[in-house]
Amino acid sequence: MHLDIENNLFQVTDFxxxxxxxxxxxxxxxxxxxxxxxxxxxxxxxxEKVERAMxxxxxxxxxxxxxxxxxxxxxxxxxxxxxxxxxxxxxVNYLLEANNAVLQMYGTExxxxxxxxxxxxxxxxxxxxxxxxxxxxxxxxxxxxTGLVVQVPLFVxxxxxxxxxxxxxxYLSRA
Length: 175
Hints:
Oligomer: single chain
């Protein structure tokens, strides 16, 4: 849920309803500023009204990069939109051309991106795996085609496709 408080957009990340033995009930919340990413703790009294922000979720297809901007096409009306990388946040590390993403829009402003739990990306550069080098749990850095650097097991070679968790940025498995 998103809230519009003092002309700022906040996403409720955690809340707790408290009813003390004496006094009135209140709600203790943890809010994340959708524009800056800063976390704020705020308490609301019972009966206090807060404006709920309407977030429009649109499924869009990432077409290509135009300079620094990312060009998306709306899957419903085929309108194209240039999006700066600052509006996408960490999602730029997981976007490949022709992939779909759900953009969270507040009016004309992009406030978030919903990605699948994992994506398949190709390894652009890493040290080649050596025969017999099978130390349990050992990892090496690998640069993906999007520029993201992840730690992968020693047996993974350049040019292979791997699954990466979009929430944590960790290697999951070979694709």
